[in-house]
Amino acid sequence: MSVRVGTLRQRLLAGALVCAAAMTAAPVRAQQREQPRVDTTVVKVHVVKRGDTLWDLSNTYLGSPWIWQRIYERNRSLIKNPHWIYPGQKFDIPALIRAAAALEAEDALADSAAQHSRFYRRLAAVDTSSGGPDDRAWPVVERSEYMATPWLEDAASLPVVGLMLDRVRVESQAERLAQLAILQDRIYIRAEGNAGPPAVGAEMLLVRVERWLAPYGNVIEPTAMLRVERSGNGVAVASVIKQFGLVLKGQRALPVPAFRAPAASPAQLVERGPEGTLVAFLRDHPLHTTADVGFVSLGSAEGLQLGDELMAFAPARPSPTEAGTELPPEDVARLLVMKVGEHSATVRVLTMRQPSLRSGLKVRLVARVP
Questions:
Q1: Which domain-ending residue is among 208, 232, 255?
Q2: How many domains does the chain fold into?
Q3: Using CA atoms, how far apart are residues 323 and 311, in angstroms rounded to an integer?
Q4: 18, 138, 141, 215: which is deepest, by most CB within 10 A?
Q5: Mean pLDDT per 10-residue segment, the chain (370 residues)
Q6: 343 and 316 both lie in a single domain
Q7: Cα(337)–Cα(296) distance, integer angstroms
């Protein structure tokens, strides 16, 4: 009997505590708005040690391993692949700021969540040092990254101005099989088409033509940027000033595409943006993740611009276990538009919400560059 009495008392006490918490929630929240939670810590510099990972650094400095992309985005000029960082590298660690205005916005969203589509994104801590998705401090696509980004186009329509012949070298027995050029090497470029030999000082983009993705075209993958040092008699000598991949004989030289940086102002959320499909990835992996590059079936004809953001999602679908039950749509990953064609675009994976990113998923424009 005493046990039951004790249990009843515990239940009554628990109920009283719940009621008290409900009555005091609003004043506490108001007090939080009066006292903004601001991390005023200046940006730190971390020198990478053996065994460090972006996951660990994010957990140490930002309080969560799941937002390691903030460190990656801040240091993209140093990190070529987020899976590989090296001892001695110096990374800027961004500071997170969460202001009272953000708290008020979250409260409003929580109270009216049913009024928004599932693509409406709740405000999170805003990284004002590197520019979050809704508060960009500088362009999220840089020129060097843009030049290295592959795209889809019919290879027959490329404006080819030359072909790589070979490295600049005096052939010896040991070098007969050495066709690969590297950064700062000089290579011969044979002029093609009606453009004539390129001018000294001109820059060119060297590309290789890969598989065909119907109906959008071939995968055109940049391998290097070149600068012409000498030109004449139909053959130019050019130096490799930036390297993105293997530089080999037979690759095509194109004029450097024009680049206009996306606006650095905050992206504008889109409620009912155009929808398309995630056509394919540049490289196939068993599990696609952050920083992977893919192609979507949306382009400039559908209003897409460099720097826009898409959401890959699984649409409503029948339950595999419950007959007659339909599952709601589920967000899978956020994608950044890196290069735009007429009816296709290249995207980079920014963040993952589900570990099920794959070709064939639907994509939808959710944030637009002003």
A1: 255
A2: 3
A3: 28
A4: 141
A5: 41 44 42 37 79 84 76 84 84 66 41 38 36 45 88 93 81 52 86 82 95 96 94 90 90 92 79 94 87 94 94 85 82 93 94 88 91
A6: yes
A7: 9
CA angle, 151 then 154 then 160, to 5°:
85
Q: Could you tell me the CA-to-CA distances from 36 to 102, 125, 128, 248, 293 in Å, in that order? A: 9, 12, 15, 56, 38
Burial of 129 (0-12, 13-18, 19+ CB in 10 A): middle
The pLDDT, as a whole number, for residue 143 is: 85
Pair (291, 346) in one structural domain: yes
Give the DSSP letter string of 190-226: EE-TTS-SPPTT-EEEEEEEEEEETTTEEEEEEEEEE
* Residue in 74, 12, 7 with CA at minimum distance from that of residue 45: 74
Predicted pLDDT at 159? 92
**Residue 18 resides in a domain:** no
Instruction: Find the domain containing 240 and state its range.
Output: 145-255
Count other Cβ atoms within 10 Å, centred on residue 341: 18
Residue 262 DSSP one-character state: P
| 191 contacts: CB under 8 Å, gap ≥ 6 | 161, 162, 197, 198, 234, 235, 236
Instruction: Tell me what pLDDT residue 133 has.
Output: 41
Question: Helix, strand or coil for residue 367?
Answer: strand
Output the pLDDT for position 170.
57
* Nearest partner of 252 among 193, 169, 202, judged by Cα: 193
Q: Are residues 210 and 271 in the same domain?
A: no
368: left (phi over 0), alpha (psi -120 to 50) or beta: beta
Radius of gyration of the chain (CA): 26
Dihedrals φ, ψ of 7, to 5°?
Answer: -65, -40
- The answer to whether residues 125 and 188 touch, using CB atoms and an 8 Å cutoff, is no
Q: Which pLDDT score, from 0 to 100, does residue 278 have?
A: 97
* CATH number of the CATH domain containing 340: 2.40.10.410
